């Protein structure tokens, strides 16, 4: 129903828009930014359209990341694809393998006369979307990394020092126990994105491999290795803490129940994307504390650096030269320091270029908003190793689903942490093998 | 049974008259079904850039996969529970209405209402009532000492989708049962009453056997409903979780095809589902219709 409505709207826009602006070249962009983020995207698009009169960009909200990606792929098969589509980082493997369906950004910029220097982008961000020859395939747009949020009021009520964020997992456990025992809150901590925060980032943060061949960066024919001792220990702990009431599971995927649990004061600590900051600030009255992700102090090499999530913009094949000129000009506009700094400050996503970071510094943004630079400090804490520069596997959208399922099997008591992670790796590897076969 | 014969004056008129129906069947059923069968023998990347003929491999893989076999089991449990619950309750309600004299029509209208609710909304409604954090029913259950959490507990999740799906279907079953009950001649029941049979005995020896055509018709309709039409209810309430505990076959087709973009496997699953429907319909017409007394 909703899809029909959107399709109807899209059709109406498609029919009406050319009449309104027949002299301009129409370009289209499908994105997954709803709510406040969606309004900001509309603002950026409106500003871009006002900044020049050769092209008219229409941005359309297509639902969740998964919905946006599958919609674009289905549209491509039907020959109705948008020029630009926002794809989340786990879809990167699928998009990279789809040669002939995508128009790599470095090539687009070169063919359509835009100055394009990949070195201006933050390495931790750009590296994720760069092929082994050092060519950038998609345009970074919204990248974030998980950080820790905590409710200072609850900390004070439980008799803890509200100015000290938990640093290690031992701290998280101890503080949570105090909070729950003192009755200051019902639960100690909750988290969004089990897969991204409590498995992928956990591994990178402790310098543990997520997969073979540098987490899949070196070859599409890789295997997952997240069933190592650190991951098993952490999942065992999470299950134990859930049993004891210290931890509250927020549901699969993004963990829809975790944010409300933190907003309402049910849980004192919350781990999620740095881009959740705007939402947290808008929905809470209490004194908010920020910190880096916790780590196990006895694991050698921890803390290493965290990895990003979020999405990039992919150009799809099959448009006219004039349209590509427009797409290239929009991408240049979008990566300008002013637009990026504004986007970064408004949303909590990372500044994707050094220039945007420096501009935010010189504008005094980090002085006015203490803790807003935790995310960037965390991804640049150490020089990334082969284990901590990201991950790239085919069929990873499905593997993310498998991670949630196996975590639920663990929490329900059907499996031990070791069994759940072993099964996860086995199922993940068979999905990667399918992908290799289909694309090899 | 008497057959009616109409003679058309021109030979093409009958064909012309059925043509729209045939065209619709061809375009909306035969063609996509044919494509699904064809696609189930292929392996394709999501964008459709490379296609390889793999024969029966998609099928072999499915039956090798523990997840797929578990989904069969889930489907059977879900179907049996939902059909039994919704048919049982609607029969009870229908019998109650059958005895009423004055308010029967008001009562009937009320019972039919849920049928007008869209399945996705029904899913959300039940999801709200049973939400582990703020659901009213969760709260009530907690008071009687049950810690409800369909996010983690597969049985809770199954109960939730069974309740939501059965509730949706009660109205439909109810209407058919009421009609079935009204077509049973009063004289039979009165005769049994004169012979000394009590209300319970009368129901099981006279009314229920005479209702069997309706019951069997509804059984087939309900099985088809639970296997295919409950998709949006499940999607809106549990999304197949936790850990695939409520992933019925049709939901898995969606998970693998739309979300996972594994079109070959998804098509193979659709073909298997299609065979199940064909088999069910065949059984209905071939065996059950003959044995049921009208």
Question: Can you describe what's shown?
Answer:
The complex is a heterodimer of chains A (440) and B (294). Chain A is globular, with a radius of gyration of 22 Å. The longest helix of chain A is centred in the C-terminal third of the chain and has 23 residues, at 417-439. Chain A has 440 residues and is α/β, with parallel strands linked by helices. In chain A, strand 1, helix 2 (35-51) and strand 2 (55-61) form a beta-alpha-beta unit. In chain A, 49% of the residues lie in helices and 13% in strands. Chain A folds into two domains: 15-143 and 309-362, Periplasmic binding protein-like II (D-Maltodextrin-Binding Protein, domain 2); 146-306 and 395-439, Periplasmic binding protein-like II (D-Maltodextrin-Binding Protein, domain 2), CATH 3.40.190.10. In chain A, the strands form two sheets. In chain A, strands 1, 2, 3, 4, 5 and 11 form a six-stranded mixed β-sheet that branches. Chain A has helices at residues 2-20, 35-51, 65-77, 92-97, 105-111, 123-126, 152-157, 169-182, 194-205, 212-215, 229-244, 258-263, 277-283, 321-334, 337-347, 354-362, 365-368, 374-379, 396-411, 417-439; strands at residues 25-31, 55-61, 84-88, 102-103, 139-144, 146-151, 187-191, 247-248, 267-273, 288-291, 309-316. By secondary structure, chain B is mainly α. Chain B has a domain at 66-248: MetI-like fold, CATH 1.10.3720.10. Chain B has a two-stranded antiparallel ribbon with strand order 1-2. In chain B, helix 2 (57-64) crosses helix 12 (263-291), helix 5 (119-129) crosses helix 7 (154-182) and helix 9 (199-229) runs antiparallel to helix 12.
């Amino acid at each position: 129903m909703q899809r029909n409505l959107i399709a109807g709207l899209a059709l109406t826009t498609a029919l009406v828009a050319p009449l309104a602006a027949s002299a301009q070249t129409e370009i289209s962009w499908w994105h997954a930014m709803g709510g406040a983020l969606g309004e900001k995207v509309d603002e950026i698009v409106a500003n871009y359209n006002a900044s020049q009169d050769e092209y008219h960009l229409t941005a359309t909200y297509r639902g969740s990341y998964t919905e946006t990606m599958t919609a674009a792929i289905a549209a491509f098969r039907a020959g109705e694809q948008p020029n630009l589509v926002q794809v989340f980082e786990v879809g990167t493997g699928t998009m990279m393998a789809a040669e002939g369906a995508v128009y790599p950004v470095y090539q687009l910029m070169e063919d359509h006369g835009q100055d394009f220097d990949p070195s201006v982008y933050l390495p931790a961000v750009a590296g994720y979307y760069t092929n082994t020859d050092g060519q950038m395939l998609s345009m970074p747009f919204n990248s974030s990394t998980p950080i820790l949020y905590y409710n200072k009021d609850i900390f004070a009520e439980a008799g803890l020092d509200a100015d000290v964020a938990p640093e290690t997992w031992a701290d998280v456990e101890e503080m949570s126990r105090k909070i729950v025992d003192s009755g200051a809150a019902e639960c100690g901590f909750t988290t969004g994105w089990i897969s991204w925060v409590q498995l992928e980032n956990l591994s990178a943060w402790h310098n543990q491999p997520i997969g073979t061949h540098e987490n899949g960066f070196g070859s599409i024919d890789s295997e997952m290795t997240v069933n190592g001792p650190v991951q098993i220990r952490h999942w065992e702990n999470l299950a134990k803490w859930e049993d004891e009431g210290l931890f509250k599971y927020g549901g699969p995927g993004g963990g829809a129940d975790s944010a409300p649990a933190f907003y309402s004061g049910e849980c004192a600590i919350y781990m999620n994307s740095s881009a959740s900051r705007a939402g947290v600030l808008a929905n809470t009255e209490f004194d908010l504390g920020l910190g880096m992700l916790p780590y196990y102090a006895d694991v050698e090499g921890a803390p290493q650096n965290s990895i990003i999530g979020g999405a990039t913009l992919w150009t799809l094949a099959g448009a006219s030269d004039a349209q590509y000129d427009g797409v290239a000009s929009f991408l240049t506009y979008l990566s300008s320091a002013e637009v990026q700094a504004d986007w970064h400050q408004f949303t909590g996503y990372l500044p994707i270029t050094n220039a945007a970071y420096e501009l935010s510094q010189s504008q005094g943004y980090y002085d006015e908003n203490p803790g807003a630079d935790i995310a960037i400090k965390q991804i640049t804490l150490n020089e990334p190793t082969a284990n901590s520069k990201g991950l790239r596997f085919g069929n990873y959208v499905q593997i993310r689903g498998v991670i949630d399922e196996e975590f639920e099997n663990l929490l329900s008591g059907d499996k031990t942490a070791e069994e759940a992670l072993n099964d996860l790796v086995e199922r993940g590897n068979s999905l990667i093998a399918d992908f290799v076969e289909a694309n090899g | 049974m008497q057959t009616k014969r109409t003679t058309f004056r021109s030979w093409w008129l009958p064909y012309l008259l059925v043509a729209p129906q045939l065209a619709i069947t061809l375009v909306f059923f035969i063609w996509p079904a044919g494509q699904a069968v064809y696609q189930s023998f292929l392996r394709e990347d999501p964008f459709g850039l490379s296609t390889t003929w793999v024969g029966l491999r998609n099928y072999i893989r499915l039956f090798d996969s523990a997840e797929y076999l578990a989904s069969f089991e889930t489907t059977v449990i879900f179907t049996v529970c939902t059909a039994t619950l919704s048919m049982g309750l609607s029969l009870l309600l229908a019998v109650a209405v059958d005895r009423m004299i004055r308010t029967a029509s008001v009562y009937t209208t009320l019972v039919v209402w849920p049928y007008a609710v869209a399945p996705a909304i029904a899913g959300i409604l039940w999801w709200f009532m049973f939400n582990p954090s703020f659901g009213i029913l969760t709260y009530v259950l907690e008071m009687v000492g049950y810690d409800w959490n369909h996010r983690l507990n597969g049985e809770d999740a199954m109960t939730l989708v069974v309740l939501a799906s059965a509730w949706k279907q009660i109205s439909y079953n109810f209407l058919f049962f009421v009609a079935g009950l009204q077509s049973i001649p009063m004289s039979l029941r009165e005769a049994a009453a004169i012979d000394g049979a009590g209300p319970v005995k009368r129901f099981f020896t006279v009314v229920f056997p005479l209702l069997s055509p309706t019951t069997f018709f509804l059984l087939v309709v309900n099985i088809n409903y639970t296997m295919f039409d409950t998709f949006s209810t499940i999607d809106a309430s549990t999304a197949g979780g936790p850990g695939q505990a409520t992933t019925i076959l049709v939901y898995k087709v969606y998970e693998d095809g739309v979300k996972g973009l594994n079109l070959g496997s998804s098509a193979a699953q659709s073909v298997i589902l299609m065979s199940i429907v064909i088999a069910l319909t065949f059984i209905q017409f071939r065996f059950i219709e003959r044995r049921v007394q009208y």
